[in-house]
User: Fold Glycosyltransferase 2-like domain-containing protein from Streptomyces microflavus.
Amino acid sequence: MHASLTRQSAPWEAVIALDGASPDRLPAPLAQDPRVRTLVLPRAVGAACARNLALNLVRTPYVNWADDDVVAA
Assistant:
C-alpha cells in the first residue's frame, strides 16, 4: 500500500495499527516515512478496536480505512 500511496499526487498521511504484531515487522520504507505514524498494540484486539484506537492519531479531516492488502488507485 505504501508504494501506491507514494505515487499519489494528493498529499496523504497514514496511521498503521499493529494489532498485536511486532513493530520489527514493519517494512523500512514505512518506518522511515514521516507521513506514516504507527500505533503498536501489545496484544491483538481485533480490527474494529484497532481502528477506533488509531483514530485518535488522525490529524486530517477525512479518514479512509484500508487493510494491508489494499492498493490505492
About this structure: Residues 1 and 70 are 6 Å apart (CA to CA).
